[in-house]
Structures are given as C-alpha cells and as structure tokens.
Amino acid sequence: MAKKKRSKVPVAPAREETGCGTMSQYERIAWVCLHLLVFLVPIAISNPSIFGAQQLPLTFDQFDIVKVFLQRALVLIGLGVWLIGLAREGGRVRISKVGWLVLAFLGWVLLTTVLSVHPATAVFGKYRRFEGLISFLTYASVFFLTLQLADRTTRIRSLARTLVISGAIVSFYGVLQYLGLDPIKWQSLPFEANRAFSFFGNPDLLGGYLIFPLAISIGLAISEKDSRWRIAYWSIFVLTGFTLLVSFVRGAWIGGFVALAIVAYAAFRVRYKPNRVDWSFMGASGAVAALAVGRSLSADTAVMNFWARLTSIFQFSEGSAKTRFEIWQAALDATAKRPIFGWGADTFRLLFPKFKPAAYVADAGYLSVADNVHNYPLQLASAIGVPGALLFYGLFGYSLATSAKHVFAKDRGVGRFVLVGFWAAVAGYLVHLLFGLSVTGSTVFLWLSLAVIVSPLATSREIKAMSLYPVVLVAVLAVMVFGSYGNARYIAADNAYLKARVSSTGLDRVHNAENAIRLNPYNDMYVAELGVAWKDLFSSSAMTLVQMDPNDPAYAQQYATTQEYFQNAEAAYRDAIAFTPMEYDTYVFLANLYNQASYYMDAKYADSAIEVGLQGVAVEEYGPAIRLQLAIAYTNNGMYDEAIEHAKIGADLDPNYAEIRVVLGDAYRYAGRTEEAAEVYRSVLAVQPGRTDVADSLAALETSVSDETTSE
Fold it and tell me: What's the average model confidence in pLDDT over 139-155?
C-alpha cells in the first residue's frame, strides 16, 4: 500500500524567550510599537523651544495633531508587521466577545459617516479634536493589538510600567508649570497662569489623561514585591496626584476620586495590609494634597482656588456650569433632530451655531463657540446617534461587568492589582467624560485599558501559515505605505498652515495656504485660510488705492491689482462655504469682504454683503458678528431701519460687544434719531472710555443738536 504524502506546512521558527515571554520577531516589533505608543503619545509636542531653539514649531497645532500622527504611524507599523508575521508563519489569534462589540460599533460609526452632514469632518474629525472615523479605527487597532500581545501578567505589568513612567514625565512637567518654571516658550495661554497643562495644551485634557497613570501606578505599587520599584511606583502616584490637583479640572478630580475609590474597594476585598513603605507614601500623599489645597486657598482667581473650584460644581446658575448646561441643551436639541444616525462623528462644532440658545451668547460672549459638548454621552448621541452612544457604553459596560469577577476575585490577593488599576482607570475616565473632553491623546488609553481588562478572558485560535502569503504581504505593505504617506502629508499640511498663519506675508502666505490645501484638502480651516490670506492682501492694496490720485498713471494698475485680490478672496471664501456650508465664520468673513469692497471699490457690493449676511443668519440665528456685518451693509445702502433692527438684535445678544453698539449708534444718527444715538454712544464710552472715534461722533452729534436748537 502506497504511503500518502503529508502536505508540507511551513514551520515557524523557534520563538525567542524575552523579558515579556515568548514572542516571534514579528510580535516583538509590534510589542515595541505598542510600548512606543504608550510612552511617546502623551509627551509628543511640536514645540522645540525646550532645546533653546527659537524657530517656529513644526505644526500650527502643537499638541493633538502630533499625538494623532504618532498613534497612526505606530499602529500602521505594529499591526502591519503582526499581520505579516501571522500570514507567513501562522500563529495564535486571541478572540474576545468584546471584540465583536467593537466591530459592531465601528460598523455603526462607518454608517453614520456615510450619512453625515459633512463626511470629511466625520472621517478625519474636527481640527484639534480629530475624533472622526479614522481615530475610532485607530482606537480599535490599539485594542486589537493589545489584546493579542498583553496575554500574561508579565506583559501587562510591562505595559503598565511604560504607561506610568510616561505619566511621570507628563506630571513632572505639569508641576514645573504650576511653579512658574516652564522651560518651554508658549504664546499667551487661554487659561490661568501657572495652571498645569503639560504636554496636552489644555488643563482639561491633561486632567483626563492623568487618571490612567494615577490608578495604574497605585495598582503597580500595591502588587510590587521589589521595594525599590514599589517606592518608584508610589512616588509616581504622589507626583501624578499632585499634578491632577493643580490642573484644577473638576471632572478629572471626580474621575480620579472614583478610580481611587475602586482601588480602595479592591484592597478591602482582599484584606490588603499596607507595609511600612505603603504607610509612608499614604502619609506623603495626604501631606502633598494638603499642601496643594492649602496653597490654592490664597489664589487670586476662583479657578485656582480648590475650595471655590469644588463648590462651583453645585453653582448651576452661573459661571462655567451655566454655559455647560446651555451647551448640553444644544446637544440635546441636535440629537432630537437626528436621533438615529446623528450628524457625523466630531461635527459638533458645525452643529452648535444652529442649536445654541440665545442665552449662551450673553453668558459666554459672541466669540465663544463650543466644539465639544463636555459630556461624552451627549457628544456621541449628537454625532453618531442614540444607537451609536448605546453601543459605545454597552461595550464598555459589558466589559467592566464581565471582567469584574476576575479582576476583583478575593482569593487572588494583591497579585492582580495591576488589572485593578486598569479597571479603575477605565471607570474613572468614563466618569470624567461625563464632564470633560475626549481627544485622541488621552482616549486611546481608554481603549488600550479596555483590552487589558478583558485580555485574561480571551480565547485563542491557532492560525496556519497562509498559502496566499505573497498576496497578503503585498496588500498589507500597500496599506502601510499608503497610510504612512497620508500620515506624513497630514503633518506637512499643518506645517504649511503654520507658515500661512504665522511666518509669511503677501503672496508667500497665499502659496503656503494653497500648499496646505493641496496636502490636505479635507481640513476646512485650511480652506478658509486661503480666503483670509487673499482678503488681507486686498485690504492692504485697497488702502493704498484710496490714498492715490485717480489721475495718477499708476492708479489703474493699482485698481486692477486690488480687484484681482478681491476676486481671489471672494472665490476662496465661496469655495470654503461650498465645502462646509454649516461653518458660520466663513459667512462673516465673506460679508466683511463685501463691506470693505463697497467702501473701497463699488457701493454695489453692499448688496452682496446683505445676501451673504442673511445666509449667515440662517446658519446661526444668534450670531452677533453676522448681525454686525448686516448692519454695516444696510447702513451703507441707506437702509437705516434694517440696519437698526440687526444691530439691535446683535447688541441685545451680547451686551459686552461694543463694536456692534457703535454701528447701532451710527445707524440711529444717520436715521435722524439723535437722542437714541447719543444714548448708545454714551453706553459705549462708559465701558470703553478710550474710544476716541465714538467720543468724536458723540461730540459732533451734540454740536449738531446744539446748532439746531440755537437756529430755532
């Protein structure tokens, strides 16, 4: 009887024993990428001034876009190499029920992206937020890669160690900022001086991130047997806790407290008995917290005062709490309008002008625009619909519930307290998101932590080497190359945008704006910047034109140049509106351009300003800036009643908006309503006594009234 030949199956090379367990060479590369992501993303910025350099940053957005770039780059490499190794040598794929929920969530986000009111934003996310479809794919990839590789206690501890060391660097820099010793040069900050923001650019974002090293460092400390590492982890915990306090972020305080309460509960369940080191650092933690709180009580501002900051949580009818409720109301109204599919991921910046209540303008000021709900359930509901929000919280709730029995088992002792730390971090961060912001630089760790807590419950499936390995290799390499190329263009585009905004003028500025659009045509900020660049050229050229003698031979050439700049600005703004019809600011910019053209070139452009202004009102009814442009245009057309109507609406919306009150006074004066004009002028001077233009108008008005009275 003839013997049957056995099919030859490629034999995987012997796996090498590493400090993290047995890994193939492909898995080791993926593991290094995962560690690099955990370590580098929190500390990544594009400002080189820490090295004494005076040149510009690499990107206009010095924080989030760099973190996004690193995440995508490392995920592309890590996941791509892991897949190549699996196809070539075979191996093990770890599967979790949570993974199927993640896939369902991604499918829903994809569907809502297709149905979005602005697919480009839904794919890439809003500038400086970036939480669109691509970021959710990145989160899911990090979840998958972590699930595959963090399959044993030693690897989970290794990942946790890298996370808290990076967190220590972030925290240390935050403390330097709090002490006024920041080595990096920043421009003016939109929040209080000496408030920690570290490498995140905003205290709210820093506070959310710190929940992860806070909870995980104490989990490492309690479960560590080596006294030196135990001291190191406790030290990081104290440093992180102090930085969290001096970020003065209430939502992060609540989230951090919840995380620590969970760790304390777990310690109680296993009858944890602190040793001398533990007691020492517990005391040190209390002393450091008391120092931070005590020092804050003498702060000049309520934001930097711990007690005032804490009690303000319950002051719902004033301050940031009041505006927060107004933003939430806008999100609820937007969700009610499209409850199933939402408006598209990360599109709230576009929705807010349409749905914000009138009271928000007076409470926050006419320049304030909310690009985030400050409440993640509402953020998700308005973005990807109620089903999408339920899917998200369903998958995290299911994961926490199913992993709790394993994580908090009584008979495990303190050996699994690293898992407790990750579990507490997930819960604490989710609580923080009820009041805070979700951005990729911190939320990626939510998904990584999710993979860690469900990893012990995952099952394995052996996969044989693939006969179509060459096809898989080409496909994966193509995705990696294409993705890396697009990722590099993403950064290069923001560098061009930086030059257009900051370092270039004239036609060079235009060329940089055009280059930003060429490299990334999906960013509405870049598209609008081209219009701004041309408009500034037009304004400068027009000012030169009005100072020239029309009989000057050079006048015709100057007029032609001015007209060319105007037409280019007009076309760029029109393109911006066509690209993002819901972006309110562009209507303001274009109406302002037409108003300037009506003054410098031809009065007929006031009609165009009115047309665009009314379109802007349709986009944002409660927008004082567009009412200002309408009032100017109607005044230029001699339509004073209409000018008064719109100027009065804008002035009532934001009583502190002085410029629109000046225009209202002018409209009253031209309409012959002198008493009302004088009253408005006086109200402006009461707030801004240095306005000589208003003082001159009031003086001229009073002189005119006096002359009329004398003649009578």
Answer: 96
What pLDDT digit, counting tens, does each position of 13-45 carry? 333 333 345 899 999 999 999 999 999 999 999
Report whether 117 contacts 344 (CB < 8 A).
yes
- pTM of whole model > 0.90? yes
CA distance 471 to 469: 5
Interatomic CA distance for residues 325 and 304, integer angstroms: 22
pLDDT band (50, 70, 90) for residue 374: very high
* DSSP assignment letter at 416: T
Pairing relationship of beta strands 459-463 and 21-23 according to DSSP bridges: unpaired
- The verdict on residue 139 lying in a domain is yes
Specify the number of domains making up the chain. Answer: 2
Q: What are the Cα distances from residue 506, in Å, to 194, 332, 483, 545, 557? A: 37, 44, 34, 16, 18
Per-residue pLDDT of 258-283, as tens digits, reads 999 999 999 999 889 999 999 999 99
Burial 599-612 (b: 16+ CB within 10 A, else e): ebbeeebbebbbeb
Q: Which residues contact 137 (CB under 8 A, 6 or more apart)?
A: 106
Spatial distance between the Cα atoms of 197 and 203, rounded to a whole number of angstroms: 4
Greater model confidence, 306 or 566: 566
Please tell me the number of Cα atoms within 13 Å of 153 on its side-chain side.
12
pLDDT at 15 (0 to 100): 39
- Reply yes or no on whether the pLDDT at 394 is more than 60: yes
Q: Is residue 124 part of a domain?
A: yes
Angle at 34 between CA 33 and CA 36, to 5 degrees: 65
27 within some domain: no
Distance CA(657)–CA(684), nearest Å, equals 9
Task: Give Cβ neighbours of residue 448 (< 8 Å, ≥ 6 apart).
Answer: 38, 142, 143, 146, 159
Record the tokens describing residue 657, joined without a space.
Answer: 């908006």
Query: Same structural domain for residues 303 and 412?
Result: yes
d(CA 261, CA 118): 42
Overall residue count recorded for the chain in this entry: 712
